[in-house]
C-alpha cells in the first residue's frame, strides 16, 4: 500500500490555537515527513479531553502558542521514518500522550509507565529527535502538544507514543480509549485496586471519573459514591454504576466528613478525577484509616500544593497518583481495545456528542459548560 505522499510535505487542515483561550482556527498547514523513529499518522477521529482545554486556557501554565492541541484520537499510519520497525503503512494506531520506548528502566519495570524518554511533557512543543516542529504555516513553526497534536488531518509522533491496535476495532468509538477512558479505568483497576464488595468514592464525574467508576463496577465494588459540584452529572452517572451522589455545595462541612459519616469511617478507595486541589485533599482524607487508598488522576495547577496532616498517613492511609492509569501504552493499550471488542467494556456511553472537524470549537463549548462527556470530532467531515 505505497502512498504517494510518502517522503513529501503534506499540506492539510489543522485546528490551530493562536492564543490562549481564543477559538481554534482551521488553517492550511504543512506537515513534514517523519524523521528517525517517527511516524506520520492520518488522524480519522479525535476527541476533546480536559487536559487539552486546560492547556488551551493556559491559566497558571507556561503558555506556548501557536500550538496544535489534541491527544485523544485514532488514526492510520501514512508513513514511517528511519529505524521504525514496529509499525507499517496502514496500521491502525492510538496516539498516547505518555510514551513507551521499551528500553529504559521504567519501561523494563513492571510497576512504572513513566518512560524516561517519552513520559508526559506538557511544556515541550517540538520533536525530541531534532528539537524542531513538523508543523508549519508559511515557513513559521507551529508547536506540538503532548507529542500527539491530533487536531490535524496529519500529525507526526514518536513511534513510542503510538499503540498498534486490532484493525477490526471501530476507530470512531475506540478513539476515546487513547486517553480518558483508559486513564480512569486503569486508575481504579491497576492502582486503587478495590476489593470485591468494597466502597469507592469517585471525585469528578466527567469521562475520566466515570471510567474510574466503570473500573470499580468491574472490580465488584458494592458502593460507588460519585462526588461532583455539578448535580447535572448525577443522572448520567447512574448508567456507570454510581450508586450514591454527593455535591459538596449541598453541605456546610468538608465533603470528606460527609463521606466518612456515610461509610462508617471512610471509603475503602477513592479516585480523584477533577484537577482541583481541594478535591484532591478531600479524596485523600475521605478514605478509611488502616487500609484506605486514594489515587490522584486530575492535572492540577502547576503551583498547587497538597496540604494534609501527617497523622493521616500515620494512621495508615495511602496516597497514590497516576498518568494513563498506569497502563504502558504500547504493551497494554491493545488489550484494553480487545476488552471492548469482547464486550467487557462499553465505550459508546461515554460518547455524547459528535461534530465535524470544521466545528471543533463546539467541543470546547460543551466541555466548558459541563455538558455531556466525550465529543468525537470527525476529521473527514
Ligand atoms: N492523569 C492522567 O493521566 C489524566 C488523563 C486524562 C485526564 N486527566 C485529568 O483528569 C481530569 C478530568 O478530566 P475529564 O476529561 O473527565 O474532565 P471533565 O471536565 O469532563 O470532568 C471533570 C468533572 O470534575 C468536576 N469537578 C471540578 N471540580 C470539582 C470539585 N472541586 N469537586 C468535585 N467535582 C469537581 C466537574 O464538575 C466535572 O464534572 C482533568 O483534570 C484532566 O486534565 C488526567
Ligand atoms: Zn487526556
Ligand atoms: Zn522508556
Write the layout of secondary structure elements.
Layout: E1 10-16, E2 25-31, E3 38-47, H1 50-57, E4 72-80, E5 92-95, H2 105-108, E6 135-137, E7 140-142, E8 154-158, E9 162-164, H3 171-174, H4 180-192, E10 199-203, H5 207-218, E11 223-227, H6 233-237, E12 244-246, H7 255-262, E13 269-272, H8 277-285, E14 293-296, H9 311-314, E15 318-321, H10 329-341, E16 351-356, H11 360-368, E17 374-378
Parallel strand pairs: 10-11, 10-13, 11-12, 13-14, 14-15, 16-17
Antiparallel strand pairs: 1-2, 2-6, 3-4, 3-8, 3-17, 4-5, 5-9, 6-7
Helix pairs in contact: 4-5
The structure holds nicotinamide-adenine-dinucleotide and zinc ion (ZN) (2 copies).
Nicotinamide-adenine-dinucleotide binds at residues 49-51, 54, 179-180, 183, 203-209, 227-230, 233, 248, 273-276, 278-279, 297-299, 323-324, 367, 370.
EC number: 1.1.1.1
Keywords: Cytoplasm, Metal-binding, NAD, Oxidoreductase, Zinc
Domain Alcohol dehydrogenase-like N-terminal: 37-165
Amino acid at each position: 500500500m505505497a502512498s504517494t505522499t510518502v517522503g513529501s510535505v503534506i499540506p492539510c487542515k489543522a485546528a490551530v490555537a493562536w492564543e490562549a483561550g481564543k477559538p481554534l482556527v482551521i488553517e492550511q498547514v504543512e506537515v513534514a515527513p517523519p524523521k528517525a523513529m517517527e511516524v506520520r499518522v492520518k488522524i480519522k477521529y479525535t476527541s476533546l479531553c480536559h487536559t487539552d482545554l486546560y492547556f488551551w486556557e493556559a491559566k497558571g501554565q507556561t503558555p506556548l502558542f501557536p500550538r496544535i492541541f489534541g491527544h485523544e484520537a485514532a488514526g492510520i499510519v501514512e508513513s514511517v521514518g528511519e529505524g521504525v520497525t514496529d509499525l507499517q503503512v496502514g496500521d491502525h494506531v492510538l496516539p498516547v500522550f505518555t510514551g513507551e520506548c521499551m528500553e529504559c528502566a521504567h519501561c523494563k519495570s513492571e510497576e512504572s509507565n513513566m518512560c524516561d524518554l517519552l513520559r508526559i511533557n506538557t511544556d515541550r512543543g517540538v520533536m525530541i529527535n531534532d528539537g524542531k516542529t513538523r508543523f508549519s504555516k508559511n515557513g513559521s513553526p507551529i508547536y506540538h502538544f503532548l507529542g500527539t497534536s491530533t487536531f490535524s488531518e496529519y500529525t507526526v509522533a514518536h513511534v513510542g507514543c503510538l499503540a498498534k491496535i486490532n484493525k477490526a476495532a471501530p476507530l470512531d468509538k475506540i478513539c476515546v480509549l487513547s486517553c480518558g477512558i483508559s486513564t480512569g479505568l486503569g486508575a481504579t483497576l491497576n492502582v486503587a485496586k478495590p476489593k470485591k464488595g468494597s466502597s469507592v468514592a469517585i471525585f469528578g464525574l466527567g469521562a475520566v471519573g466515570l471510567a474510574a467508576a466503570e473500573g470499580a463496577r468491574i472490580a465488584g465494588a458494592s458502593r460507588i459514591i460519585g462526588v461532583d459540584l455539578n448535580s447535572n452529572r448525577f443522572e448520567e452517572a447512574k448508567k456507570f454504576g454510581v450508586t450514591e451522589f454527593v455535591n459538596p455545595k449541598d453541605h456546610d462541612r468538608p465533603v470528606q466528613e460527609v463521606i466518612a459519616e456515610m461509610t462508617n469511617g471512610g471509603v475503602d478507595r477513592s479516585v480523584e478525577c477533577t484537577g482541583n486541589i481541594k478535591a484532591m485533599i478531600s479524596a485523600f482524607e475521605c478514605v478509611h484509616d488502616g487500609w484506605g487508598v486514594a489515587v490522584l488522576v486530575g492535572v492540577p495547577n502547576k503551583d498547587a500544593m497538597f496540604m494534609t496532616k501527617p497523622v493521616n498517613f500515620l494512621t495508615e492511609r495511602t496516597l497514590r497518583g497516576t498518568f494513563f492509569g498506569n497502563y504502558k501504552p504500547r504493551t497494554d493499550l491493545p488489550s484494553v481495545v480487545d476488552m471492548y471488542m469482547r464486550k467487557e467494556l462499553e465505550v459508546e456511553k461515554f460518547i455524547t456528542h459528535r461534530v465535524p472537524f470544521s466545528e471543533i470549537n463546539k467541543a470546547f463549548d460543551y466541555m466548558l459548560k459541563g455538558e455531556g462527556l466525550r465529543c468525537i470530532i470527525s476529521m473527514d467531515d
